[in-house]
UniProtKB/TrEMBL annotation:
Name of the molecule in the record: SnoaL-like domain-containing protein
Gene3D superfamilies in the cross-refs: 3.10.450.50
Organism in which the protein naturally occurs: Microbacterium natoriense
Length: 110
C-alpha cells in the first residue's frame, strides 16, 4: 500500500513534525495561519509555534497520514499520532492558501 499523496504545503507540515523541526513547522503556515485542536485555537506564528512546542514537536510527536482526500484547497486526512501528549488516530482538516497551510484543524472526536 502506498502512502497518501498530500498537497506540498501539507506534506511540509507533516515532515516538519516528523523531523522535529519547529522552524520548518512554523514556516509551513501563512502569516495568519492557525491550528485548532479540539476547539482551542492557536493563531499566527507565535500561536502555531506554541502548539508545536506543547502538543507536537515538543511532545516528541510522530504523525502518520493513513488516508487523505483533497477537494480544492481543503484536504481531509485520517492520521495516526504518537507523542507524550496523545496516542491514537484522529481526523484532520487542512486548508491551503498558495504554497502554505492556512489552517490545520483537529476536530473533537465523536
Amino acid at each position: 500500500m502506498s502512502a497518501p499523496v498530500l498537497p506540498t504545503p501539507v506534506q511540509a507540515m507533516v515532515d516538519a513534525i516528523n523531523t522535529a523541526d519547529t522552524e520548518a513547522f512554523v514556516a509551513a503556515f501563512t502569516p495568519n495561519g492557525f491550528v485548532t485542536d479540539w476547539g482551542t485555537v492557536k493563531s499566527g506564528p507565535d500561536g502555531v509555534r506554541s502548539w508545536a512546542v506543547s502538543d507536537a514537536i515538543g511532545a516528541g510527536a510522530r504523525m502518520t497520514v493513513l488516508s487523505s482526500e483533497t477537494d480544492g484547497d481543503t484536504t481531509h486526512v485520517r492520521f495516526g499520532w504518537s507523542s507524550r501528549v496523545f496516542n491514537g488516530e484522529s481526523d484532520g482538516i487542512f486548508v491551503v492558501e498558495g504554497d502554505k497551510v492556512a489552517s490545520f484543524t483537529i476536530p473533537p472526536a465523536h
